[in-house]
Amino acid sequence: MDISDIKKLAQQNKVVPFIGSGFSMSLDFPSWGTIIRELAIELDWDSDVFMQSGNNNYLQLAEYYCIIKGGRSELRRLMEKKMYLADDIIKASVLHQKLVQLSPKIIYTTNYDEAIESSFRVHNKNHTVIRNINDFVNSQDGNTLIYKFHGDFIHENSLVLTESSYFDRLSFDHPLDIRLRSDVLNNTLLFLGYSLSDINMRYLFYKLGHIQSQLNKNSQHKTAIMVTFNISEIQKAILREWKIETYELDPIDKTQSLIDFLEKLMS
Predict the structure, then answer these.
(1) pLDDT in tens, 160-190
(2) Are 8 and 115 within one domain?
(3) In the chain, is it the N or the C terminus that has fewer CB atoms within a 10 Å radius of its CB?
(4) Distance of alpha carbon 1 from alpha carbon 68, whole angstroms
């Protein structure tokens, strides 16, 4: 995939960023593994034993924690506390500032934190956060629409944090899924901050490939582009089969590589 092709799509306002946790790695959010070890401590488990008992399946361990605690409230509280960032930290993030300057009409994210919407707020850019069907009613023309694909801390029931909630999400019949299918037909998704180790995202890529196959075979429309670091030939072949294009960045300084990439789209 050539940068000029992606840039052309961006100039036509046809690029929809789809943002994962890797995008915000420079903000020093705790990893899933770190959070799971804290859950073990709260449950009076040895963290190593806890991880091994759940076969390092973080979603399963999070679900066990929620069962013991009688719901997701305690997990939401802990994660919200760990992922809080002051406005000055958000404003200092050059990468998030570049995303705001790109001014996409739509953004999807599987991140629970508020870094994206906060960056739009601190830079005084109009935006609407959409977590569920009720938020569609409050969206305004001209605002960047930020779809929280896995929910966020404001609406606890929207969070996709446990194995069961991931299985429910994989049904892809949520109102946000319906909107995503519509957006894919008219735009190109630009995946930033993801790896192919996430089974949920691999399933999404697979589904996008099916959408592409339903389009006119002569169509030049690109359903999705995955921006990657050091992707293997095996992964490339699978993505090509699913009609997902790839664009590789320098892995030495991933945050700076993403900043440079967004700057090129706007140059």
Answers:
(1) 889 888 888 777 777 888 888 888 888 999 9
(2) yes
(3) C
(4) 48
